[in-house]
Structures are given as structure tokens and as C-alpha cells.
TrEMBL record:
Residues 8-213 form the LarA-like N-terminal domain. Its EC number is 1.1.1.57. One of its GO terms (molecular function) is fructuronate reductase activity. It comes from the Bacteria. Pfam families: Lar_N (PF09861), LarA_C (PF21113). InterPro entries: LarA-like, LarA-like_C, LarA-like_N, LarA_C, Ni_dep_LarA. Residues 272-424 form the Lactate racemase C-terminal domain. This is Novel D-mannonate dehydrogenase. Keywords: Oxidoreductase.
Amino acid sequence: MEKISFPFGRKELDIEIEKDQLQGVLVSKAHQFKAEKSELQIVKEALDNPINSQKLSELVKNKKEVVIISSDHTRPVPSHITMPLILEEIKKGSPEVEITILVATGFHRASTDEELRDKYGDDIVELVNIEMHDSRDQSQMVNLGKLPSGGNLLLNKKAVEADLLIAEGFIEPHFFAGFSGGRKSVLPGVASKTTVLANHCAEFIASANARTGNLEANPMHQDMLYAAEAAGLAFILNVVIDAEKKVINAFAGHREKAHLKGTEFVDSLAGVDALPADIVITSNGGYPLDQNVYQSVKGMTAAEATCKEDGVIIIAAECSDGHGGEEFYQTFRDAKSVQQIMDDILARGRKETVPDQWETQILARIMLKFKVIMITDPAKQDMIEEMGMEWAENLNYAVKKAKKILGKAKASITAIPDGVSVIVRQ
């Protein structure tokens, strides 16, 4: 037997799998990467040696207002480490400059005070002006014309009108943008609902180039790059983290050049070869990424890339915050069939995208090919079943249920402990 652990909320779930059934365990090398320096040293060295850019302390000179776009509570960016160093660098160049942290909620809800304190620490929350982006509030937006795709480019006015716009974030594989980080701080981070909907249209989500680990000819990435340039994003600090959410590398500087360096590093660690199996077990990397069903679709896409046709995907995600999107939830709850959901989405043009359609489209794509079993907080069982998935209370029960569905007592199994950290190459 081989024991394997899967992140689940702030803890782990364990299972023992018979070796003759286990095809293998797909793990990002980032999880074994041993950084030779402390997290603070890594981030400080990145800020001291920016890529294709002046130092932040130089860029901020003679500026009156700096806006820092910062990831929200759904992203495991270690802002308690990165933000103090960013603020220190800004103050070094311009001690009196006005600073605003603009939380890039994208299409998510606003962060709570508790979540902000957990993310930044009490001092920053109490001493620095922090504002929440609201994609649905059109009074916050300014019109910057059209995206390459033709969608209207409406971005947060505070960000666009800043004397200096910078962003902090992290880089990981992303299931349709290729990688997170960099330009994503602007689109969808501080974009209008209208702009997000245009970029996340059915046509782009269905593109074979809008996949994990791919930027080449990725239509979503191209829109995002354009938006970041139009916003005047002048400097980024993006980190790479391991399974414990510890910083193992950092990239600072030009919005595109620094991000590309970071994606090359992540790709070198995250790429794994598919190991086809009847059952694939994965997770969404634990808290904060597994707070809801919506976010957990990301982990499912890693399993999708290595699950055999008509196989079973098991995903462990606590979902302490529920479904994560009312329209997303209602679509599955009220649908006559998953195929009908997909047909309705694919019939919509770029200007007809509805909220959460992209996550719905990807989950529907997965559910049309595989049976999905979710392990969640027990209080979420009804919700999971209403959405057309199976629910299980633990990993052992989920595997038994999967074998019963397949009618195979000796079904093959591939494990992906952290589905959002790998790029599964087929």
C-alpha cells in the first residue's frame, strides 16, 4: 500500500492505495524545491534586481499617488511577506507618496476585514488605505476603448488614473489563461463585469489554446496583455510558492518580461506526463483555493487531462464558502441535462456571455466526459448533489463509490495531490 496525502482546507486527507492499482503520483517539482534563501531574501533580491525595469524606488520618484493591485482572499499570495517589502521600497523612493492597495476581486465577492488581516497583517490594514474593486459598479470604471477580441475595455478608474500602477501576485498554472499572475491583475482583476464577460466568452474558453500552461496564441492571454498595457501597469512583483505556500522564487519588473521569466520557471517545475487511469484523485491545493466549488473546477482540469474516457474524477475540496457563484450553482441545479448546459453556452456570442459561464462551461465539459465525486464539508452534500455530482465523506468512501460506478474492483488510480500546481502533458 502507498499512503498519499491531499490538502483539504487547512488540513490534509490521507488514503492508502494498493500499489498494483496505483499508476503513479503526479506532483509539481515546486513541492520538492528547496530554496537556499529565506522568503524575505528571495523577494527582496527580486525587488533589488528587476527584470527590464528600473527599481520601484526609482519609478516612484516625483509621483503623487501609487496604486498597488493586490490579489484577493481566494489567492494564496503571501502578502504578509511581499506587501511590507513593496511598501518599504516605495517609501524609500518617495516617503510622502499617497498609497492605495486596490484588491483585485475580479468577479469575486469583496474580502472581509478578517480575510484582509489574515492576508496583510493588522498594521497594513490599519495604516494603509485599502479599497475593494467592484466589477459590477460602473461608476468605478473608465472606458479605454476595445480589446483585441472586440470587447469593451472598462477598467477601475483608481488604477488607471494612478501616477504609478503596480501589482503583486503569484504565478501558477491556470486552466484557461495558461498561467496566473502578471497581466491577470488587471484583467480580470480590476476590470468591469462587461470586460470580464467579453474576455471569458464561450468561444475563447473552447479554444484549444486556452489551456493550462499555454500562452502561445491564447486568445484570453492576448486580451489580458493588452489590458495591462492600456492600464499603464508599470511594475509587477510575482512570487512562486510551494505546497506549504512558502515563497521559492520571485520575479519583479516589467509587466510582461518579468512575468514570462516567472512562467518559464513554473513550467520547468510543474510539467508532468499524464498517467491515464480509470480513477484520478486530486485536490484544489487546500485553503484558500478550495473555499468553493467554483474555484475547485481548476483542480478538476488536471485530473481531466489524465483520466481515461468514461472514468471517475475524485476531488477533495472543503468548500467552506459554498458554491462560489449563484448563477454557476443555479445553472447546474436547474438544468435538464449537462449537455443542455453546454449547448446553451456554445450558442452564445462574445457579447452574450453571462456571469460564471466560463466555470460552468469547463465543469460541464468535464462532467460530459467523466463522473465527478466531490469530498467536501458534510454540510455541502445537498449542494453538491443538486449540481449533478456525487458526494463522499472521505477518500476511502469516494474510491469505493468510484469502483462501484465503474464496475471494477481493481480499477487503476492516478493521484494528483495538488491539481492546481501541475501542468499535465498528454
